[in-house]
Amino acid sequence: MSIEIANESGVAVDELALVSVSRFALGELGINPLAELSVLLMDVDAMTELHVKWMDEPGPTDVMSFPMDELDTARRPDDAGPGPALLGDVVLCPAVAREQAREAGHSLDDELHLLTVHGILHLLGYDHVEPAEEKAMFRLQNDLLDQWREHRATTAARARLEAVDRAVLGAVGLQAGEPHPVGEQNRS
After folding, report:
1. What is the DSSP string of 119-162?
2. Residue 178: per-residue pLDDT
3. Is residue 130 scored above 80 in pLDDT?
4. Which residue in 18, 24, 144, 141 sits closest to 90, CA to CA?
5. Which DSSP helix (H) or strand (E) runs through 2?
6. Looking at the whole model, is its pTM more than 0.90?
7. Does 148 fall in a domain?
8. What are the DSSP calls for 6-62, one per residue?
9. 22 lies in which domain range?
10. Residue 164 in domain
11. CA-to-CA distance for 56 and 25, rounded, in angstroms?
C-alpha cells in the first residue's frame, strides 16, 4: 500500500505513526494493498482556503477528504473485490488539531491519528450527516483506533523482548536456537 505524507504545516508530527494508522485502517477495511493514499498536513491559512473553497464555510477545519477514484471502477468481472485505486487525499491541520487535543485532554498525536482514520473513512464513503450514520462511522473509527493501538503496543512489546533476547544471547556468544554450552559441560 502506498501512503505518502507531505507535511507543509510547519508542525513536527510523527509521520511514521500516521502511515502506520493509515495502513492498519485500510487493511482492516479490506482495501486492496496496491491502493494509494496521500496525507497532507497544512497550516491554518492553507486549510482555511480549502475549507472556504470546497465547503463554503469560514475558517480552518481539522480534516478534509478529497476522494479520487470510485473503489468499484477498473475491475475485471472475475475480480472478487475492489481493485487498486487512488483513494485520494486526507488533509489535516495540526494547528486546529492541537487545540482540539487540548480540549479533549489528549495528545496532538492522538488527535492526528483519530483525524487520519476519520478522513480515510470519508474517502471510503462513510459520513456522519444523519445520526445513524454518525453512530456507525464513529463506532468504526474508534474500533479501528483501539485495534491499532493494541497492535502497536503488542508489536512494541515483542520488539523489546526480542532486543533483550539478542542482548542476553549475544553476551554469552550464542545465536537464537543454539544449545547453551553450560548444559553440555554438565554432562561430562
Report:
1. HHHHHTT---SSHHHHHHHHHHHHHHHHHHHHHHHHHHHHHHHH
2. 60
3. yes
4. 18
5. strand 2-8
6. no
7. yes
8. EEESSS---HHHHHHHHHHHHHHTT--TT-EEEEEEE-HHHHHHHHHHHH--SS--S
9. 2-158
10. no
11. 29
The per-residue pLDDT for range 145-179, each reduced to its tens digit, is 999 999 999 998 888 888 888 788 776 665 655 66
CATH number, domain containing residue 142: 3.40.390.30
Which residue(s) pair with 40 in the sheet? 6, 91
Pairing type for strands 36-42 and 63-67 reads unpaired
**What is the domain count for the chain?**
1
- 3-class secondary-structure state, position 175: coil
pLDDT value for 187: 47
- C-alpha 161/C-alpha 174 separation (Å) is 16
Where does residue 158 fall: left (phi above 0), alpha (psi -120 to 50 degrees), or beta otherwise?
alpha
> Residue 79's pLDDT is what?
58
**Element at 3 (helix H, strand E):** strand 2-8
pLDDT per residue over 63-88, tens digit each? 999 998 655 544 444 556 655 678 99
Closest Cα partner for 23 from 39, 6, 8? 39
**Average pLDDT over all residues of the chain:** 87
